[in-house]
Amino acid sequence: MSGATGSPQRKPLMIGLTGSIGMGKSTVAAMFERAGVPVFDADAEVRAMQGTNGALLPAIEAAFPGSTGPGGVDRDRLGQLVFGDKDALQRLEAIVHPAVAEKRAQFLADNAGARMLVFDIPLLFERGGEAAFDAVVVVSAPAQVQRERVLARAGMTQEKFEHILQLQVPDVEKRARATHVIDTGVSLAETEAQVRLIVDELAQRTA
């Protein structure tokens, strides 16, 4: 019975945003925000919870002694402790993932009236989470562009880059499984135009 309150509120369209390392996903996420779409950035939430006085510091220090300090998690030190060690990585994920899920639930509650929501999830396909979304946007760029971007990062090596690629679903497969693909191997203006076209198209579905 609708009564005076009218029809039930439509749920926001759920958009998963993903892409391999160096593809420009963070840049595209910011473009969605500029287009008026709220974005949940799981990595940003993790960085906050692992930063100075972060909520996860006691649990991480207990599991990985010496990995935290006054400024929060020592990412290089923690990375050394979990790099290539599947058991250690699973212990870290068991600490981080439930906390991120809590933040995500709060984001959903805070933005229940939005037309659509973007969830920035680096390992969306790797975790098998795409079924939870109404649309999946993959950010992609030519392999050479990706390589140049990643190897320009401080502390990145060819070996580390190759290891990361081995852990990720290949870009060609991600593009094949996406509902939308955004090419970041072009100018920022062209990339932003692609984002706005997708927002307009998805808005039609919520009309």
Descriptive notes:
The chain is of the alpha/beta class and 207 residues long. The protein is built from nine helices and seven strands; from the N terminus they run E-H-E-H-H-E-E-H-H-E-E-H-H-H-E-H. 26% of the residues are buried. The longest helix has 25 residues, at 86-110. The chain has two domains: 12-38 and 113-207, 3-Layer(aba) Sandwich (Rossmann fold), CATH 3.40.50.300; 51-110, no CATH class. A five-stranded parallel sheet has the order 2-5-1-6-7, with helices on both faces. Strands 3-4 form a two-stranded antiparallel sheet. A hairpin with a 2-residue loop joins strand 3 (68-69) and strand 4 (72-73).
Topology:
Elements lengths: L12 E6 L6 H10 L4 E3 H9 L6 H7 L4 E2 L2 E2 L1 H8 L3 H25 L5 E5 L14 E6 L2 H9 L6 H10 L3 H7 L2 E4 L4 H19 L1
Parallel strand pairs: 1-5, 1-6, 2-5, 6-7
Antiparallel strand pairs: 3-4
The CATH superfamily of the largest domain is identified as P-loop containing nucleotide triphosphate hydrolases
| CATH fold description of the largest domain | Rossmann fold
Globally, the shape reads: globular
Helix content, binned percent: 40-55%
Head-to-tail CA distance between termini? 23 Å
The proportion of strand residues reads: 5-15%
Query: How would you spell out the order of helices and strands?
Result: EHEHHEEHHEEHHHEH
Major sheet, described briefly? 5 strands, parallel
Compute the CA-based radius of gyration: 19 Å
- Strand arrangement across the biggest beta sheet: 2-5-1-6-7
Helical/strand content category: alpha/beta
CATH architecture of the largest domain: 3-Layer(aba) Sandwich
Determine the number of helices (DSSP H or I, runs of at least 4 residues).
Answer: 9
